[in-house]
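Q: What structure does this chain adopt?
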Amino acid sequence: MRKHYLAMLWLAVLGIAGGLTPAWQPARVVASINGEAITEAAFEAEVAIQHVRNDLTGRGEGVSRPAIFNRLIGDVLLLQAARQADVTVDEGRVQSELSSLLRRHALDRPTMDAMLARRGLTWPALERSVRSHMTMDAFMRRHLLAGVAVPEREAALERWMAEQYLEAIIRLDDGFVERINQERTLPAQSG
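A:
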């Protein structure tokens, strides 16, 4: 169960670490969380990784752009808290998780590279994403959920996240938010 959770978690965060903008094109900032920018490229990478997740799990469902944007903001808050608490993960564990991911889905590296490339993503972006997800997981286990009974963990995490949202300085590009809310859900795209 934990490994499945980590696999899904890395897919959720890939956009934060994996969204790259060509050097010749200025990055459009669509949100700022406590001064940390989320670019449109990072958001689009997150949308792409959701498609990869659907590809891996065999689900052909669409992608909710507003939900992804909201999750991305929450992930930034978690990663900021993890950095503040000096939570890191061992590189060997990251590589082990990547190997486990490939085994779980019966993929080899070239096949995964091709799957990522079809969605505009790269292996290094996947590595950064896995590292970010493992960092968030370690922070939650060590700092947020340590000593919290399993049935109460979801509520505890929701309370903590609500506090973070209230205390954070969050600036959003209203035009971007309006556009993704109008788009709502993109249909599944074949990879």
